[in-house]
Amino acid sequence: MKKMIVTLSLLATTLGLAGCGSAEEKASQDKAENKATDQAQKSVENTKTTKSELNEEKIMQDIAITPQTFEAIQDDSINTDTKQLVKVTVSAKNNSKEETGISSAPFFLKSKGGKELQFYGEMNEFGTMIAPGKTVKGEIYYIADKKAATYELIYNPSAVTNQKDTKQRKLTWNLGKITE
């Protein structure tokens, strides 16, 4: 009888300890899974807020505009502390029945905080007439902002003309981070 009680006690103790160990392991696994889930959710949220709209066509007044590339260019010849330029390659298609013009002047680049980047005019040669149904491609250069994480490209033709645009029409693309 004593042997049976001792055996049952040992069995109950072993099962009790095994059960506690499983609970502790399960708790630590749950914590690890929750942490991984939280990190994945934050990563998804960051991806959503900084999703690039490169290669996304937008249309204004029968001109279809698509920013195609967005990259940093190292240039030691520029007289700034960043020594870096940002190049945006843009294509524009004339969907109208008349010839129209496009240039780099109505394009503005802003950092996430709203700071407008300085246009680097020495390298900008994007400006031409577009025949109906034709597409042109050009490069626009800006002086980089070292502190900026993400950028936004804005096309606002009324900002460079004397014409008042009461509707404040403009196109905007989130370009995300610079590729180097």
Describe this structure in words.
The termini are far apart. It contains one helix and nine strands. It is an alpha+beta fold.
Write a brief caption for the model.
By secondary structure, this protein is α+β, with helices and mostly antiparallel strands. It has 1 helix and 9 strands. The strands form 3 sheets. A 4-stranded antiparallel beta sheet has the order 1-2-3-7, with no helix packed on it. It has a 3-stranded antiparallel beta sheet with strand order 5-8-9, with no helix packed on it. Strands 4-6 form a two-stranded antiparallel sheet.
Low-confidence stretches: 34-49
Overall, the morphology is extended
Helix content: 25-40%
Record field, number of beta strands: 9
Helix-strand makeup class: alpha+beta
Strand content: 25-35%
Query: What is Rg?
Result: 30 Å
The main pleated sheet reads as: 4 strands, antiparallel
What pattern of helices and strands is seen along the backbone? HEEEEEEEEE
| CA distance, first residue to last residue | 80 Å
Kindly state the mean pLDDT as a whole number? 76
Number of helical elements: 1
Strand order of the largest sheet: 1-2-3-7
Keywords:
180 residues; alpha+beta; 33% strand; 9 strands; three-stranded antiparallel beta sheet; single chain
List the helices and strands and how they pair.
Layout: H1 2-49, E1 58-60, E2 63-74, E3 84-94, E4 100-103, E5 107-111, E6 127-130, E7 135-143, E8 151-155, E9 171-176
